[in-house]
Records
---
Amino acid sequence: TARPSGAPRVFEPKNPLRTTDPGALEMLKIAHDSNVETVFDRVVAQQPQCQFGYKGVCCRICIAGPCRVKADDGPASKGICGATAYTIVSRNLVRLIAGGAASHSEHARHVLHTVHELVEGNAPDYQIKSPAKLHKLAEKLGIATLDRSDIDILRDVAELGYADFGRYQERPLAFLDSFLTEGRRRKFKHTNIMPRAIDGTVTEMLAQTAMGVDADPVNIIFGGLKTSLADLAGEYIGTTLSDVLFGTPEPIVSESNLGVINPKMVNIAMHGHNPVLSEMVVAAARKMTAEAKQVGAEGINVVGICCTGNELLMRQGVYLATSSASQEMAIMTGALDAMVVDIQCIYPAVQTVAECFHTKIITTEAIMKIPSAQHLAFSAETAAEDARKLVNIAIEAYKHRDPKKISIPNERHKLVAGFSIEALTDIMAKVNPDRPMSVLTDAILSGQLKGVALMAGCNNLKRPQDEGHVTVLKELVKNDVFVIATGCSAGAYAKFGLMSPLAVDAYAGPGLKSFLKTLEEANPQLTTGLPLVFHVGSCVDNSRGADLAFAMANELGVDVPRVPFVASAPEAMHEKAVAIGTWCVTLGLPTHVGSMPPVEGSDLVYGITTQIAHDVFGGNFIFEMDPAVGAAKMIDALEYRAWKLRVHRQ
Ligand code: CUV
Ligand code: SF4
């Protein structure tokens, strides 16, 4: 299979300067001078990477293997059991999706457990911060709200959530079903990919792809699509219940990049994903200024890394220090007193780097420990007390700082974040109170905007950090695309100052500029102005992106495959990103990916993901390693959809 635009698999494989983030670049110099090994060195040391694995034609599913597809025909073209390239590639691919779905749904289950403990009276430190979200969710789920206490309503919501996880249902998953469009609901039923239990679907995927089970690549991939919908279900549970517990995000001002680390304060980085932990640490830190002053600090500065950073930024305005590929750089500043982590995207290497400094790494979840790092088992019952202990570890560590090792980049940028779909809808309601979503769809129909893009996903050091995210964004906004962002994509824009209203003048095309101006004029209460790109949250909050696509579809009276809406993960890395990209395609979205997944070993699988998916579901993968070309292809897809909508309206 020809690789798209002939771009190399790994850009400049020997160059360890693989970041474009100015904050990270500054730290990287120090890392090299002081001989601290980082991810930027290790990615070079891994080159050249195994081409069998890269193309997806290495099978390790049973221990007769590893088997590799070594020839085009004959015995060497198959595994020992006779599995051919398309079977091996598709099995490997869907197992990535199962890993992603398991990750997102474990995160959601943790939030759900916390909700359950709250309802049972065992989690005194949590509360229902957003009754409005609870009521909206309950109504969608068909749960009675009239004359009932919030706790009673929440009890029923939690029960439905648990049922979605565990019990194999006759009916579709309650949370997933409650927010799909009618058209998608029918499509998923007809193609038999509606999951009936989140856990059961992940298990079934492992069983389906075990040695000697499914060999049919189409059947395997349909199993993968079903698993991706289980992933979306988990994300939606995670997002909605986090909003209920911690509040639905509203526009908020903050700052980002390593310069937010404050040399005069006790600095605690929250790294990982779950607000169940990070919200409690922020709350504790805000009450412990006196303790920090006792050790000579001015106060406590909690900063975020990766998605838990995004969660805290969205709801609390907490500074976002950095994103995934540069996580070690936060420790390299020499002024980070503790890094508290929970799950996902945490490099085990943070402990190794921390040992060169005074920084304490503390793990908090039973399934996530790092050798030599401290472990504090965080629990919902004792959350506030646990959080106090975590903050105290940082305060204690502050005493052991080595001033000679402190070096914090000046890089920091203002930003506006906090755009839940509720917040976006409220903003548009100021222009059209009866049909807020029509403000966005009308702008597309009139040609003022070309459409909407969801920017998502990680850093993948096969290419320079953030270069993909930034290039795609600049192309999209220049061409009047309304952009929302999550995860480390949002992190990149935050760090580069592109999530600021100041960036609008410099980068937005005339249509986008005038659209934002209309919104601003109708919303004088938003004194900060509107940003170039709208932060909608963490990776689980990609469910907010789906929500926006559904709302636009309903407003336009069409199904998602006809909505001018695209998605992009220019630097996808995690299994979770594979799951997200797959449900985007299944929902009917053209989905750009800028780091090649292991599908090139089978023309058939490559063809299914890039073309046949489009015939069946209306969405398809666009594998394009050149970010500017990727953006151009996304803009083409948007223009085509908008043109078709206009033709059908005449
Ligand atoms: Ni959950 S999944 S690297 S933090 S976006 Fe960042 Fe986002 Fe990917 Fe991880
Ligand atoms: Fe080899 Fe088949 Fe076992 Fe895979 S399942 S490792 S192809 S024998």
---
Amino acid sequence: MAPLITHLYTADPSAHVFEGRVYIYPSHDRETDIQFNDNGDQYDMADYHVFSTDSLDPAAPVVDHGVVLRTEDIPWVSKQLWAPDAAQGRDGKYYLYFPARDKENVFRIGVAVGDRPEGPFTPDPEPIKGSYSIDPASFVDTDGQAYLYFGGLWGGQLQCYQKGNADTYDASWLGPKEPSGPGAKALGARVARLTDDMHQFAEEVREVVILAPETGEPIDADDHDRRFFEAAWMHKRGDTYYFSYSTGDSHYLCYATGTTPYGPFTYGGRILEPVLGWTTHHSIVEFQGRWWLFHHDCELSGGVNHLRSVKVKEIFYDDEGKILPVPVDQ
Ligand code: FUB
């Protein structure tokens, strides 16, 4: 399957249908001399483009709407504009959520607002209060209530917040560390309901718990084939909430299901096996009655981990609502 976008490197695609078109909000990967490390320093992105299309036919054109936000536009940011997402608020405006390092090198999540899905976006002068870590994924439920999921281990710093809120930051956990050992439970992604104006968290941040179906207990920290690492995504099909994510160092895209946006979620299986490149990150969206997985791999760059390209594949569910594994590109 060919990449959707070939004139730039793009990754971490968050796709939504707005005004009848598919809009894609990816990271914009760029060349760098920074050596690969477990902190992700080589993912040194400095701006965002937005893309859209009115068809997911492989031959259909994808429009590049150009740069919609850049590092120098955001007063609190020092570097690393990582995986973004966007949502439409009750006021009809569009909100771009993005993680970046602040001036103290700590990842926070910012929000920028625009009148159109393709931007441009004007950032708030400060990050969202109480935000931390990376990979914001917005979800607007069928009742109109908006939520923000976020978090990512290691370079994404989630392991520095084991006691919950942003005030508990513990720098001694920086680096490729996470809970481990007998009895240790995996750290979960985080979620909070958004305020009606979409600019802040409306409540205390909660942990997203994923249960092992065979025990009904939270996934173990050492279960690297199933534990949450990064790339949270939420979609709803019928009454079921599907929380999907990357397992990071084991390189799977997995999902878990629940009956509320907060969970708990029960592990459901793998969506995608490892692709070419270290990271795997995705979104799932319904468009014209069919369901689609947007993800990235490093095929276009010949396997350079930080030069990724967005792809799209149709996904299918069985009669019980399980997502059928998606064939990986050979
Ligand atoms: O693109 C930078 C980081 O790589 C993202 O935030 C992670 O999800 C991983 O894809």
---
Amino acid sequence: MASPQGYPLLCLENPLLDIQAHADAALLEKYGLKANDAILAEEKHMGLYDELMKLDAKLIPGGAAQNTARGAQYLLPDNSTLYIGCVGKDKHGEILKKTCEEAGVHTEYRVDETQPTGKCGAVITGHNRSLCTHLAAANEYKLEHLKQPEIWSLVEKAQFYFVGGFHLTVCVPAILALAEEAAAKNKPFMLSLSAPFIPQFFKEQLDSVLPFTDYTVCNETEARAYSESHQWGTEDVVEIAKKLALLPKKNTQRGRISIVTQGTDPTVIAVASTSGDVEIKTFPVHELSKDAINDTNGAGDAFAGGFLAGLVASKSLEDSVDMGQWLAAKSIQELGPSYPYPKQAY
Ligand code: 26A
């Protein structure tokens, strides 16, 4: 049952089941994968999933923004988070729903009758992860689902919106519907850039949503991919963060905050004021010994989750970043994009 008061945080994207295994460079090479990347699967990648299964793969609930939603809920009071996306009518879809429920995340999935639940092959080599996604049902999300009266009333009740940039490949009209609701009522809207291929190959879609963003989040590689695809002529993360923060904006009541994470290097944040000034802040990450790392799949999603939890709980920018970094450090000590259970207190 949906909460009649609604959920303060609404997240939208692609619900996926991760098929995660440790492998070697030869497997990456066989499928033309980079050690650290996220791509959409093509025909030539379809054999990867069975090969991962043979390598004793683990099935782990994934989907970037779904990980973020579970992460935010980890740090928030009950009934704080709603997640929306499209699954198939199958066992994998049920596993995802159950995992969200156990994490306290309310789901409103569109259930597609024809396609199976999407999956992501996560090939772990050392501290790198290569993600290869077959969206299947996740690609069937529709604006009509969001506009159903019982769902739209939850959209209206939400106070914060987070959209995973991977959804730019799926349903831009749904993203824009949330973005416009946020801007019209001066509610914060946050978007992740998700992967280098988004600014590279979904540039137009990305640029149609960016004016609505109050927060952007990406890692250094995605930041540089954005800069390159817009011929900004710089690879400097601080410079790119500033330029992202100062891009044109629909809601002029808030300046944009652009966040760039850099693995173990400090997180760079550009804070733009409504008058067009921009201030840079850097935050060293929580130190973790190399051998405490299980795998880094989902680190960025966890950061976004912790950060959003801070925003929803009305914490300062500094505290919200700290919550993001804390949750990212917790997540990389778990298998896949997961969080410690029983719950640890921040
Ligand atoms: C459209 N694509 C490529 C994707 C994804 C994705 N989530 C949504 N859409 N490709 C990988 N992921 C998820 O990223 C998480 C790690 O950050 C994986 O499912 C994984 O859980």
